[in-house]
Design a protein that fits this description.
17 strands; alpha+beta; globular; 10 helices; 2 domains; single chain; binds zinc ion; 403 residues; Aminopeptidase; Alpha-Beta Plaits
Length: 403
């Protein structure tokens, strides 16, 4: 089947994950796409299964004894809840430059402006697939899914020699649970790639080290008229804590490799106050130092206001996969070489977030992230480039036959 036809079929299935659900998959509708994929993998001749958590696994047996390496590819089936993914009306067009009118009505058109989305410039003369401006496209990550399945199909048709190939399509990546039930042992690969990136050429293998922190402040309330030397105001101690953090190390003032403390929530009054933070840094030492600084500030306030006034709870969320890949950089190098063979210049930028591949890497399977040829994810302005998607298939196929 043609790559684009396959992609358009996948995006016709709404698969939004649901953060408020405790089940896995978090939404029943992801299973509809999972079943389609299961059938397709079986039709291609793979040994395939859909497990109790909604993960689809497929295994292609080696057709030669010479290739010992076992490579895997992973993509996610769910879509972000940022914008609806129901009733997607994709449209392929040749981008001639300038603004793109996606939809809307005569007096209220939905326009993707070239000035707002400078990434458009690189697609001049290429075929792109856009939305009608009312939904997201679902290229994140159905472009990745379609590319992996198409690469398998083309590889099988070509009869080229390959080793064992494993693929997995996961649910619930967008709510941070995509790796929760991933079966590393059953997957049986030596290394793998998530195909969940953006612009053609991207190879991502550095992400944040991440933690969350909660600061709980306990105060003492008393009538303000007779409060002198008695009242301990939790809310104002919480402010004091926050004000002692480095002012410039916040998301809105940092980029590239710069880490931050991000105050994500605050609540409280005189008796009780709470601050919620996320802490991020690519560098392990700086990451540890950030958590240590928070501990020191809590100790400082406790020394001043009395033991037990401030309680700090820090929990690590995920780590930079670069530290796992340090002695397995051949996995990244293989991807870069495959891209160059396909005439694509690889680019690596540090991810200012996490990926399922990062968590899977820490589960023992090195797993950098590859491009899909999509842009503006989680948005009604999301689009994919059909030509770049075809290149991604070529790259994946190269990796499938890599010795
Ligand atoms: Zn994604």
């Amino acid at each position: 089947m043609d790559l684009i036809k396959r992609f358009l079929n996948y995006v016709s299935y709404p698969t939004m994950s649901d953060e408020n659900s405790d089940t896995c998959p978090s939404s029943e509708k992801q299973l509809a796409l999972a079943k389609v994929l299961l059938k397709e993998l079986k039709a291609l001749g793979l040994e395939a299964k859909l497990d109790e958590y909604g993960y689809v696994y497929g295994f292609l047996k080696p057709n030669t004894k010479k290739i010992k390496e076992r490579v895997g590819f992973i993509a996610h089936m769910d879509t972000s809840d940022a914008v609806s993914d129901t009733g997607i009306k994709p449209r392929e067009l040749k981008y001639e430059g300038g603004d793109v009118v996606l939809g809307g009505t005569g007096d209220r058109p939905v326009v993707m402006k070239a000035s707002d989305y400078p990434c458009l410039a690189r697609y001049k003369g290429k075929n792109i697939i856009v939305t009608d401006g009312t939904t997201l496209l679902g290229g994140d990550d159905k472009a990745g899914v379609a590319e992996i399945v198409t690469a398998l199909e083309q590889l099988i048709e070509s009869g080229e020699k390959h080793g064992k190939i494993s693929v997995c399509f996961t649910p619930d990546e967008e709510i941070g649970r995509g790796a929760d039930h991933f079966d590393v042992r059953g997957f049986g690969a030596d290394y793998a790639y998530t195909v969940d990136g953006g612009t053609l050429g991207e190879v991502e293998y550095e992400n944040f080290n991440a933690a969350s922190a909660k600061v709980v402040v306990r105060g003492i309330s008393i009538h303000p008229g007779s409060a002198k030397n008695k009242m301990v105001n939790a809310a104002s101690i919480a402010c004091e804590f926050h004000n002692m953090l480095p002012k410039r190390q916040v998301p809105e003032k940092t980029e590239g490799y710069q880490g931050f403390f991000h105050l994500t929530g605050m609540s409280g009054g005189t008796e009780y106050a709470e601050l919620s933070y996320i802490i991020r840094d690519h560098d392990k030492e700086k990451f540890e130092a950030k958590k240590q600084l928070m501990r020191e500030l809590a100790d400082k306030l406790n020394a001043k206001r009395g033991e037990g006034t401030v309680e700090l709870i820090v929990k690590d969320s995920y780590y930079n996969m670069k530290d796992v890949l340090a002695d397995k950089m051949y996995v990244v190098e293989k991807a870069e070489a495959a891209m160059r063979e396909c005439g694509v210049e690889p680019v690596s930028v540090p991810i200012r977030g996490g990926t399922d591949g990062a968590r899977i890497s820490y589960m023992g399977l090195p797993c950098p992230n590859l491009c899909t040829g999509g842009e503006n994810f989680h948005s009604r302005y999301e689009f994919v480039c059909a030509d770049d998607m075809r290149k991604c298939v070529e790259i994946i196929k190269k990796l499938m036959i890599a010795k």
